[in-house]
Write a structure and sequence with these properties.
The structure holds two protein chains of two kinds. Chain A is mostly helical. Chain A has a domain of about 100 residues. In chain A, about 85% of the residues lie in helices and about 0% in strands. The termini of chain A are far apart. Chain B is an all-alpha fold. Chain B has eight helices and no strands. At the A-B interface, helix 1, helix 2, helix 3, helix 4 and helix 6 of A face helix 1, helix 2, helix 3, helix 4 and helix 5 of B.
């Protein structure tokens, strides 16, 4: 039963994971919360780990959840389950590539749906961030200061494009600095 | 072909931090410039497809290129190569993390990291919004209408705890309906 549940959940995440990494987070969060597979703090922590380790966030989360729920085989199962929808859909697309290209390029239904999905993904990412703004992650005013500073530095290259903003907006660097700040303040 | 694709994607998977989008330039360099497996134009088509289709972008691109270059064997090689590095790294971390988590030092570090992670999730919204608002040739609707979809999606999931799956399905059905109505009135006008 547990295996089946894990499989269905991560298959669903793979199937509806439009827009890649960040958009997939709200899907994962909903599933793991619903079944109590991971606490919210653990979820944020694993997103943090994903940001500083190589590879797609979806695979990282799937592997971690699988392992915490049911060890090695759990992680193999969840990783397989999140990849499987991609395999089915992308291989179908590859096989019908030219047919699809002729049929769907310029098709208003197809183009507008893709456009709507891009905007839906924005909402999904926003909800992932909003869902995490809770006392478990934002424990005191210092948390909000860290949040504001990291957010500002991340978007800084959008306003001032130079070498300095390029370096200070790097997610890995920001996470490491936030970690050091955490150690100094709470340690 | 299996090993060649496996090795190429293993390399890409091991050395890219920050997920799918960060992988694309590396994939391009390996697959288009170095190996010459597909040309530039097909690569761009591939990116469009990998983004439009559900699932992880890195995995989607691995499947496409694997299939183009080496059929079934190519797909297996490329997907395994793309997935294996992050799978093994996270597995190793997961094995120790449950114990480390309890350490006061680790907990203090993560207290600082957690709000930063939320900021890293939220901040790209700015860029995503900007690029989504760019006018496109195919659209007759103003972008403001689409922004309502973003807003509704965020609020439904955040406040009403609606599963994102339903939100995505609703957005698809809504768009198809609206386009359907537009098409039929357009035809009547003709």
């Amino acid at each position: 039963m547990l295996y089946l549940q894990l499989f269905i959940s991560f298959f669903k995440i793979g199937l509806f994971g439009f827009g890649g990494g960040l958009a997939i987070l709200s899907l994962i969060q909903m599933e793991v919360e619903q079944y109590g597979w991971m606490s919210q703090q653990e979820f944020v922590d694993i997103v943090a780990v994903s940001q500083v380790t190589p590879g797609p966030i979806g695979i990282n989360c799937a592997t971690y959840v699988g392992y915490t729920v049911d060890g090695l085989w759990g992680s193999v199962l969840t990783t397989f389950a999140i990849v499987l929808p991609s395999l089915i859909i992308m291989l179908s697309i590859c096989k019908a590539y030219f047919w699809l290209q002729k049929r769907f390029t310029g098709n208003p239904y197809f183009e507008q749906t893709l456009r709507a999905l891009r905007f839906t993904v924005i909402g999904l990412v926003a909800s992932a961030a909003l869902l995490l703004m809770k006392p478990t992650t934002f424990i005191d005013p210092v948390s909000w200061i860290i949040f504001a500073v990291v957010a500002l530095l991340t978007v800084s290259p959008e306003f001032i494009k130079n070498k300095v903003t390029d370096v200070i907006s790097h997610p890995i660097l920001l996470i490491v600095i936030a970690g050091i700040a955490g150690y100094c303040i709470y340690g | 072909m299996f090993w060649q694709l496996f090795y190429t994607y293993l390399k890409i998977g091991t050395f890219t931090l920050g997920g799918g989008y960060a992988m694309l330039p590396l994939i391009q360099r390996e697959v288009v410039d170095r190996q010459g497996w597909i040309d530039e134009e097909e690569f761009l088509n591939m990116i469009a497809l990998a983004q439009a289709a559900p699932g992880l972008i890195a995995v989607n691109s691995a499947i496409f290129i694997g299939w183009r270059v080496g059929g079934w064997r190519g797909v297996c090689g490329a997907v395994l190569g793309a997935v294996l590095p992050s799978f093994l790294i996270i597995l190793a971390i997961a094995m120790v993390f449950r114990e480390w988590k309890e350490l006061p030092t680790v907990e203090a570090v993560f207290k600082g990291v957690r709000p930063a992670v939320v900021a890293l999730i939220a901040a790209p919204l700015f860029k995503m919004g900007k690029s989504a608002m760019k006018p496109s040739a195919v659209s007759r609707q103003p972008s403001a209408l689409f922004l309502l979809i973003s807003l509704a999606a965020a609020l439904l999931i955040w406040l009403a705890h609606v599963n994102p799956v339903w939100v995505i399905l609703a957005a698809i059905v809504l768009t198809l309906t609206v386009v359907g109505i537009q098409q039929s009135t357009f035809r009547k006008q003709k």
